[in-house]
Amino acid sequence: MRRETGCLSMPREPYAIFFRDSDIIARLGGDEFAVLLVDPDSSAHEFVEHRIEASVRLANASSAGPCPLSISLGVCEWNPTLQQTLGELLATADARMYEAKAGREAPPATA
Fold first, then answer.
1. Does residue 111 lie within any of the structural domains?
2. Is residue 110 part of a domain?
3. Which residues pair with 32 in a beta bridge?
4. What is the per-residue DSSP string for the chain?
5. Is 43 inside a domain boundary?
6. Rg (the chain; Cα; Å)
7. What residues of the chain score a pLDDT lower than 70?
8. Domain range for residue 30?
9. What distance in Å separates the CA atoms of residue 20 and residue 24, rounded to the nearest whole number?
10. Under a CB-based contact definition with an 8 Å cutoff, are residues 69 and 1 in contact?
């Protein structure tokens, strides 16, 4: 990952540590990306989530920059018996991403 004039630029090369050549990565717009893990095992998405989150923590720990990186992930699985459309899958993942973001940005509880 690298920062360029206030924007986050993420070329394909850094993705190699998270994803396989068979996985499909697409930029949805702005700073939102979608990844289709092709033929994953049951724990693949958890592995990828942990690797990405660890990478962001490492980048923040090693950066002297004033703007720390943050990430919110929304994960969903395709179930062939539900006959979900791509739009429905993206909507589910998007809702889960916003839930994760809201949980991270919630102010600390006071007594």
1. no
2. no
3. 29
4. -EEETTEEE--HHHHTTT--TTSEEEEEETTEEEEE-SS--TTHHHHHHHHHHHHHHHHHHH---SS------------GGGT--HHHHHHHHHHHHHHHHHHHHSPPP--
5. yes
6. 16
7. 1-16, 105-111
8. 2-105
9. 9
10. yes
In terms of Cβ atoms closer than 10 Å to its own Cβ (0-12, 13-18, 19+), residue 89 is: middle
Q: Which of 102, 77, 80 shows the shortest CA–CA distance to 90?
A: 77
Q: Are 26 and 34 in contact (CB under 8 A)?
A: yes
Q: Is residue 55 part of a domain?
A: yes
- Give residue 95's pLDDT: 92
Angle among Cα 61, 65, 16 to the nearest 5 degrees reads 60
Domain count, the chain: 1
Confidence (pLDDT) at 12: 47
Kindly list the distances between the CA atom of residue 53 and the CA atoms of 59, 88, 111, in Å, as whole numbers in the listed order. Answer: 10, 25, 30
Own/partner contacts of 14-21, CB < 8 Å, gap of 24 or more, are 17/51, 17/55, 18/48, 18/51, 18/52, 18/55, 19/48
Tokens representing 28 are 């949805």
The C-alpha atoms of residue 83 and residue 106 are separated, in whole angstroms, by 35
